[in-house]
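Lab meeting tomorrow. Look over both lines:
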Amino acid sequence: MQRLGRNQLYCIGAARRAGIRVLVDPKGGDCTRYRGAYLIKPNRVELGLLAGVPVHDHAGTEVAGRRLAEAMPGTLVLVTEGAEGMSLFGCGDPLRVRPAARQVYDVTGAGDTVLATVAIAIAAGAAPLAAMRLASQAAAIAIGTLGTAAVTLDELTQAMEAS
């Protein structure tokens, strides 16, 4: 596992001081590496590592998500839960978005699709819950395609209008 150097750790703080929001797809079990980030997006396995408790279902996500959000004040924790959607911690009561019903062909890149969509939505001024809803639709489109998929604006617009 690669350790972050002092310069890399400095980047999150420098970005925050400059008013730039940092969104992270965390790896490993050291949450201090991401302190100061605006949002981190672990899946359940990554959440378990970061929170120090195993996560096998949504009930486990609730426990670990709350624990991690408490350990990282000021950072939103967006947990992708596969077929059970996604949950957001660190913004008061946890928020949950259920996934759009879709045939699953390939989950490759679904987490990346979620993080990219949330980042674009947040940068455009969307509230976290609206960003989650948009990301859920984008992920549903991505997993409905064999192989990695780039979700287009037209596809996402159609999906949002249909929901």
In short: The helical segments are 6-17, 44-51, 58-71, 110-123, 128-143, 153-162.
